Amino acid sequence: MKLAFLDTETTGLDNKRHEIIELALIIIEDGVRIYEKSFKIKPQHIETANSVALKINGYDKDIWAKEGYCWNLESVKRLAAHLEGAVIVGHNVKFDIGFLRAVFKRYKHSFRFPPELDTKTLARLVWGFDRLSMDHIRENVEGMTTVGSHRALKDVEDCIFIYDKFIDKITTTKSKTDII
């Protein structure tokens, strides 16, 4: 099984007006990490950015100018190739997919996005939380921390943590039912 753990950080909440400024992707295939990358992406319309979103995501125009990439058709095609045949896993993953769909549309790249798995649902199943924000989960689960939160790679690593805890729980539950 191929899992594509993905997170985006954006200049706001509206994928028609705002942009992705950071993207992290870790691909695990048959239990092995085969790809791990995080990108800063230069915003093309910083004037539409929400200042609160920029602060939360740690945006620094000098760092992004120096380290940032720009979207182009080739980068969109490479991302599509990485996602092909995977299940995309993320926290509130529909949000991230919505922004990616907007990028793919802008570059006129037709792509059928694969199935999604939301770690919010997994967290509810593992810990029974009613509040499912990633920060709430981090604050209430041993082994997690809010340090470095709202950065794409940290958020992806935390999604993997939640996924692994879910797998542990269903494996343990299955073992108990096998005894009977």
Structure notes:
There is one protein chain. This protein has 180 residues and is an alpha/beta fold. Helices cover 46% and strands 19% of the residues. It has seven helices and five strands. The chain has a five-stranded mixed beta sheet with strand order 3-2-1-4-5. α5 packs across α7. The longest helix has 28 residues. It is globular and about 50 Å long.
Key descriptive features of the protein:
single chain, 180 residues, alpha/beta, 46% helix
SSE layout:
Blueprint: E1 2-10, E2 20-29, E3 32-40, H1 51-56, H2 61-67, H3 73-83, E4 87-90, H4 93-106, E5 116-118, H5 119-127, H6 134-140, H7 152-179
Parallel strand pairs: 1-4, 4-5
Antiparallel strand pairs: 1-2, 2-3
Helix pairs in contact: 5-7
The SSE string, one letter per element, is EEEHHHEHEHHH
How many DSSP helices?
Answer: 7
Average predicted confidence as pLDDT? 95
User: What would you report as the Rg, rounded to the nearest angstrom?
Assistant: 17 Å
Overall morphology: globular
What ranges have pLDDT less than 50 throughout 5 or more consecutive residues?
none
- What class, by secondary structure content? alpha/beta
The major beta sheet can be summarized as: 5 strands, mixed
